Amino acid sequence: MAGGGEFAWRCVVVGALALVAVRGGAVRTAVLHDHSHQLVPYRQGLAWQERAVAAHGRHAPRTDDARRAGGVDEGAGADRAMRDSLILLQHEPVLTLGTASTVDNILTPLERLPFDVVRTTRGGEVTYHGPGQLVAYPILDLQQSHTADLHWYLRTLEQVVIGALGDLGVRAGRVDGLTGVWVGERKLCAIGVKVSRWVTMHGLALNVRTDLADFRHIVPCGVRGRAVGSLHELVADVQVAHARDALVAHFAREFGIAAWEQPGAASLAPAAPPVAPARGVKGG
């Protein structure tokens, strides 16, 4: 059953295991950096991503933050260096702007905002990150290991979240012409990515137990007339850990990952000290 494009089942134990069907009998593993229980400053999370991208051998880190922060452990040998990664975390409260966005969708004067505004390298408009929101940063080589198609990648990320929410008892879907995952008229998950030479950065932010009051400062993702929602409004006792488990399982299924390697806390440098609230927009 392993040849000719048939599915073959393989079981490989590398750290924590997720068992899925793998095309052609090949076993694909990825590195899972699970810091979903931590509040991580935005620049620290960005530095970790840049270090993981650099491990693919495609780019050097774009800022000095990655070198100072330590970041993702590249491990021993090229095998780990070329393996896909998934970084999970929560962020300290922050607003981020995409490459083409302006401050027009920030409703509160910058000097009165209670947290940072950071210009970053992803696509899309302004969004909020904060406690109770599960953030996932996939570092994938789409050309080498997946499908070199941005539309396919965005729709696959949406499907990961739709499947995870289904496991938690929530029927979610898409809205034509808009990226993200919705339940009715409320957006539960924002997606904004960067793909350079088919290596991905940034990712998705799923509101699990998020204080939606912090969204009052912005027009989320620049989409007027649409509300944001949080999973805990629909599943009262849900925790970030529940969403994490469902998301990791569906990520493995959709991206054909047979096993996760969890390198442990030593693979990521300690989080940087909190950054003082901004009085203007800062570069990412």
Number of beta-strand segments: 15
- Count of DSSP H/I helices: 6
* Net shape: globular
Helix content: 10-25%
User: Over all CA atoms, what is the radius of gyration?
Assistant: 18 Å
pLDDT < 50 stretches: 1-25, 58-81, 270-280
Derived structural class: alpha/beta
Instruction: State the distance separating the first and last CA atoms.
Output: 48 Å
The helix-strand sequence is EEEHHHEEEEEHHEEEEEHEE
Average pLDDT for all residues: 80
| Proportion of residues in extended strands | 25-35%
Q: Identify the quaternary structure here.
A: single chain
List the helices and strands and how they pair.
Elements: E1 7-9, E2 21-23, E3 29-40, H1 42-55, H2 64-69, H3 78-81, E4 84-91, E5 94-97, E6 116-119, E7 127-129, E8 133-139, H4 142-145, H5 150-167, E9 173-175, E10 178-183, E11 186-196, E12 199-207, E13 227-228, H6 240-255, E14 259-261, E15 281-283
Parallel strand pairs: 3-4, 3-14, 5-6, 6-15, 11-13
Antiparallel strand pairs: 1-2, 4-8, 5-7, 8-12, 9-10, 10-11, 11-12
